[in-house]
Design brief:
The chain is α+β, with helices and mostly antiparallel strands. Helix content is 30%, strand content 23%. It has helices at residues 14-22, 32-43, 53-68, 73-77, 142-149, and strands spanning 81-90, 93-101, 110-113, 117-121, 126-129, 133-136, 158-160. Helix 1 (14-22) runs antiparallel to helix 3.
Length: 169
């Protein structure tokens, strides 16, 4: 996946689910196997068993349900905040990189790469990744540039543009 493959920057994994449903992508494509394994772990099933076609459709249904959901106020109040963020394609999957605060497992101000980005509502100040909601601070590509220069991101990582719909005045 390249930034040019993202047909809807507000729902960047739609390219993946559309491709999986019609057979254009398969479970052996980079990034798909880890998503299936993560989905299995979340559902309490065996993550390393052979991937079946039904697993692919279950994954697509799960991603589509995440992408179609809108967070309630309480979910956003407790969500971590990501500052100085931008959209990046890393190893064939769209993610956010930035500085995170309020994350249950990361230290305050940690530079992070999120799980795959499912939906972003930049005008409403939130994003949904495969694992959680994030409140969005100001966008900025400096964390991406620093992580790439330090070799802490895959060298093929590429930034993609997310429309600014007026959320940062």
């Amino acid at each position: 996946m390249t930034p040019d493959d993202i047909t809807d920057p507000l729902r960047p994994l739609q390219y993946v689910t559309d491709g999986l449903r019609v057979g254009a992508l398969t479970e052996i494509d980079p990034g798909i196997t880890p998503l299936v394994r993560t989905h299995r772990l979340l559902n309490g099933t065996r993550p390393f068993a052979a991937i079946l076609r039904q697993d692919i459709f279950d994954l697509c249904d799960h991603i589509d349900s995440l992408a179609g959901a809108v967070p309630d106020l309480s979910a956003l109040e407790t969500a971590p905040c990501i500052e100085r963020w931008c959209g990046v394609v890393v190893e064939d999957l769209p993610v956010l990189v930035g500085l995170v605060t309020g994350h249950p497992r990361l230290r305050q101000g940690a530079r992070t790469v999120t799980s795959p980005l499912v939906r972003i509502a930049s005008d409403q100040g939130w994003a949904r990744t495969f694992s959680r909601y994030y409140r969005l601070g100001r966008p900025d590509q400096s964390v991406f540039t620093a992580l790439l220069a330090e070799g802490r991101l895959h060298p093929g990582a590429r930034r993609f543009d997310i429309p600014d719909l007026g959320g940062w005045t």
